[in-house]
Structure formats: structure tokens, C-alpha cells
Amino acid sequence: MSSMTSGRAPAPPDEPPGPLSGAPGSAENPRRYAGWPAYRGSISGVTLPTRTPDELIGALPTLDASPRDAGTLTLIVRRPDVDLREMLPEGELTLAEGLVGDSWGQRSSSRTPDRSPHPDMQLNVINTRLAGFLAFGDIDRQALAGDQLHVDLDLSEANLPVGTLLVFGPSTAGERNASDDAPRPMIVVTEQPHTGCAKFIARFGEAAMRFVNGPHGRPRRLRGLNARVVVPGRIRTGDTVIVIRPAATA
What does the alpha-carbon distance between residue 222 and residue 66 come to, in Å, rounded to a whole number? Predict the structure, then answer.
């Protein structure tokens, strides 16, 4: 039983984890739970640990070692409703919905004139090393970050300029089948900044929020980035994520 469901705070690891090995459930029965208890920073009266400024700075070498050109999709998180999370082994990306079954299409945006869902904020992508570190290795707590796609990839502005394409596909040629002749799912990095909200502070602490939006975190996009789907298709945890930068910056 995970710490999210048992109420036990996890022991902190010494450094940010690499790709996750947690069980996201199955396509028919995704791992689902309510995220609201962690909003107040505690579970069953147990205060959740948060990272100190020194720990966050100390994690930078591991975060900076994230792959630059070919990463890994480690976690797919669907948000069927406010503060609910479903961790999926695979998901469907479409032009209209983003991640099928996610609530992006029902979420208003202050960045659109009519407060409709912002098309360039369809998907949130976060570095899994950072998210796992903030969550002390608890995959359920990591999912509360609110990002649908967690990747082991350098998301920095220098590495992924606006317009960069991220292409998802099998990690090895042996995993391909006849359907893989179709175009691979693809998303594009948009210019909309991803800065977090009060829930991020409550779940991971004020120091974490200052860090991801500060001089170390902002250029690295440690809070994550926004993207939208440009080629629909099915994605799976463990997929390779290939970086295709705009021609002018490649």
C-alpha cells in the first residue's frame, strides 16, 4: 500500500530518482485516487515532508543530467476531475481533447478572453526527476503535481525552445507492431509559461515553489512546460521521447 493511501509519510531518498518504476494500474482499471487530502499538506494528520532550499540546490547536478535529445515517458496522469488523478499505463492523445478523459477541456483559463480552455496549455509536462524528488519518491504524491506527462528529459528553455516537437514511440524496435507504421504521437512546446499555483505550494512547500520559479528553476523549466497535441495517437509509459528542435535553433 502506498503512503498516499496508508497515511505514512515516505522516507526521503538521498537524491532525485531517475525514471519511475511504480505500477500505474491497467488500461481497464487505472490507478485512481482523490488528491484533495494532500492539498492541506497532510494525510490523516501526518504532515508531509517538504524539501529545504539547500536540498533543492543540491539536486541540481542530478536534474541537469536529464537526457537532452531522447528521454523517457515515465508517468501518464489523467485528471478526470478537480483533485482526482488516474495513473495510466497508456493514454490516447487527440487534437481536440489532449489526453482523452482529462479535464483540460472543462478548465477555464485566465489567459483567454472568454476564459475558455487555452489551446496552448492542453498538456503540462514536467521533469520526473524533479517531481519525484519533491514527492520523496512517493508516486501517488508525485501525480498530484497536476502535470499529465512526466518525462526523464531536459525541459530547459535552452534545450527545448518554443516550437520544439516531442515525438513518442516504442523504446525498442522489438516493441513495434503493424500499427506502428502510422505517424507517431507528437506534441509541440508552446510559449505559454507554466508557473504553478497555490496547490503546488501546499503539496510540495513554499521553498519548492520559489525554487522552480527562481533563477535556477525558471530557465530549466523545473515547474514544467505547456504543450499541445499536433499528431494524435497512443502513448505508453516507457515510450522514448525524441526531441526535434525548430530548424533555426537545431
Answer: 12
Report CA 67 to chain centroid distance, whole Å: 15
φ and ψ at residue 133, rounded to 5 degrees: -65, -45
DSSP states along 81-105: STTEEEEESEEEEETTTEETT-SGG
User: In this structure, what C-alpha cell is assigned to residue 157?
Assistant: 528553455
| Whole-structure pTM value | 0.80
Q: Residue 156's CB: how many other CB atoms inside 10 A?
A: 20
> What is the number of alpha carbons within 13 Å of residue 133 lying toward its C-beta?
28
- The CATH class of 49-171+181-249 is mainly beta
CA gap 191, 181 in Å, rounded: 31
- Phi then psi for residue 87, to 5 deg, are -90, 120
Q: How far apart are CA 50 and CA 31, in angstroms?
A: 24
Span of 61-70, 85-94, 153-162, 180-189 with lowest mean pLDDT: 180-189
Q: Rounded to an integer, what distance in angstroms lies between the CA atom of residue 92 and that of residue 83?
A: 21
